[in-house]
Amino acid sequence: MSIDIDSTHWEDQYLALMRHIWLHGDERRDRTGVGTRSVLGAQIRCDLSGGQMPLLTTKRVYWKTATREFLWFLTGDTNIRSLCAQGVEIWTDWPLDAYRRATGDQISREDFSARIVADEDFAKAWGNLGPVYGKQWVDWPTFEPVGEGLYRPGKGINQIADLVHALRHNPGSRRHIVEGWNVAQLDQMALPPCHKTYQFHVTNGRLSGLLYQRSADVALGLPFNLWSLALFIRMLAQQCDLEPGELVWMGGDTHLYLNHEDLIEAQLQRQPSGSPRMTIARRPETIFDYAIEDFEVSDYAPQGKLVAPVAV
Fold it and tell me: What CATH code is carried by the domain that includes residue 25?
């Protein structure tokens, strides 16, 4: 689905998509039981030149939280302990829900997170998410034959390192892809990948990136996904001596949860303004060596915070 709008501000694409789904989306029951209004197929494009970043201005987006999550993916870690230690609770609800169901202990989210941080054994027992994004990105499992019908684990594939190498040495390739959808391991994941397939394209010294997202929570998740895609492009461009080009986001099941009505109605009354920009303070030796302190955002003056519950 493409949306025609008479505006030069990228965020109008986001608001037009939100409005279209809320007014015309099909109402469906979903995995969470909350219910959604949904469309199949959507697109948002954003120019990243001059430091521009797709940060929503019609509500505050906690870009440092999204950045910490993205850097965590690059470590290959799949336990929430290091995230909780940084005050990032994006992934806490899934282990918390599993713990409550298994034990009957209706511990609060705050107390569960604090215990994850304080107790390493508890974190090992209850903080694991299974082989989610980071595992697939930097350690995609392989298997080696050791006999007829017998296999043993082989050396994992670091898709991110391979991508950087390919962008540097074969920029014209059509295989600059990072994939998270490992069919053999989906049932082991707390949540199968939503932002599943990334593809990158080099032309005239500019690096553009496309993300196909199979499932997109437009009100809560998509603002983080747009930021993270832009961040990924900017980091890769710096590492490969390229200039950032265009961000292209494509949604599969693109939806709004029915219990997000208050947020949606409020946000659709607002008008975008300003042009947030990001600078990267240094160029680390590898893409795996960035830290949260390396990123600085300027000209970001968002309107008031809007909140809504996460559907687990």
Answer: 3.30.572.10
- Give me 28's structure tokens: 């469906």
The tokens for 189 are 């994941």
- How far is 44 from 54, CA to CA, in rounded Å? 10
Boundaries of domain holding 271: 11-76+155-298
Q: What is the mean pLDDT of residues 194-215?
A: 98
Q: How big is the chain by its Cα radius of gyration, in Å?
A: 20
**Would the pLDDT of 3 be above 70?**
no
User: In degrees rounded to 5, what are phi and psi of residue 219?
Assistant: -75, -40
> Is 149 inside any structural domain?
no
Higher pLDDT, 77 or 145: 77
Contacts of 181 (CB under 8 A, 6+ apart): 192, 193, 196, 197, 214
CB–CB of 90/83 below 8 Å? yes
Q: State the Cα–Cα distance between residues 57 and 271, nearest whole angstrom.
A: 8
pLDDT of amino acid 276: 96
Rounded CA-CA distance 109/92 in Å is 8
Distance between CA 211 and CA 80 in Å, rounded? 24
pTM over 0.70: yes
Verify that 240 and 113 share a domain, yes or no.
no
Q: In terms of domains, do 102 and 194 share one? A: no
| Catalytic residue flag (residue 194) | yes
Q: What gap in Å lies between CA 70 and CA 91, rounded to an integer?
A: 12
Task: Decide: helix, strand or coil at residue 115.
Answer: helix
Statement to judge: residues 95 and 221 lie in one domain: no
Q: How far apart are CA 296 and CA 248, in angstroms?
A: 23
Q: Which of 153, 116, 118, 156 is nearest to 134 (CA)?
A: 156
Pairing between β-strand 243-257 and β-strand 206-217 as defined by DSSP bridges: parallel
